Amino acid sequence: MRYKKFKNAEIEVSQLAVGTWAIGGQNYGKVDKNEAIYAIRKMIEKGVNLIDTAPCYGNGTSEKIVGEVLKEIPREQALISTKFGLIPDIYTHGYKKDTSYKNAMREIQSSLMNLETDYIDFYFVHWPDVNTPIDETMAALEEMKRKGYIRYVGVSNFTAEQIKEAEQYIQIDVQQPLYSMVDRGFEDLMSWGYDRGIDSMTYGSMGAGILSGKIRSMPSFEKNDLRLNFYDIYKEPKFSKIMELLKVMDSIADGHNVPVGQVALNWSTQKEYVGTALVGVRSIEHADENCKTFDWKLTEEEMKILDSKIEECAL
């Protein structure tokens, strides 16, 4: 496993992290809970030291599964990242944004209970809330730090302007943007954050599964599947462009005798401004395959070839 020293947080973090959106079991395909727990444990055994979750992933289900994992390992062996401010709406089946002081203090207690832990390492504002003044939200986070509930402050889906406003009240340690070979919209934001000590935990690191190389024709997901509704990957013309990129990735993967997914993970984590890549796992085999990514590296020439093809495909 490779590690990076996060600047503002001043802590070593594995360049691969466990993402648990899918194991919440909500609109992301079938999930075997026990298999997911075994897979997370396998990644921890292989040197991964960060697990990312959120209360809205399956309305608490994901956090509770992570809590079960934590029972089996020393607490200091894993850094835990979770979030607040995005609440499932049972009436609309959507989400409400609420980063108010009152809700923040309610959610931290709920997450600590779900995770069965005394503290959370990285605590994120999940989405900006235009109805709550930023100083109110940051005051809640400052209070949590004072009480020892959290160690580091993060923001997710924030713009540079929103981050700068938040920084007036508290140090922002990390951010969590969408990023992969096929989703590069936040690249400038990540580079900007990196220069001021704000490291990135990237989600969607495998392009909702398409960068594994295991999907070569348009899939038939359920209509409410998040891979169709949250991402634009499984839509034309982008899908066909990604298939062209995969041909180049196939060639590089064959040269190293590795799965295509390892090419995608190395490309991402070899970028200076990527702190760690969040990757979902559903099986022990999948966990082992992902961790073996760090047994090798892409050459500078291979990185240039991939970057060139990504630009050519306008991804």
Automatic annotation (TrEMBL):
Domain NADP-dependent oxidoreductase: 16-310
Record keywords: Oxidoreductase
One GO term describing the cellular component: cytosol
Gene3D superfamilies the UniProt entry points to: NADP-dependent oxidoreductase domain
Listed InterPro entries: AKR_Detox_Biosynth, Aldo/ket_reductase_CS, NAD(P)_OxRdtase_dom_sf, NADP_OxRdtase_dom
Gene Ontology terms for molecular function: oxidoreductase activity
CDD domains in alphabetical order: AKR_AKR11B1-like
UniProt-recorded name of the protein: Oxidoreductase, aldo/keto reductase family protein
Originating species: Catonella morbi ATCC 51271
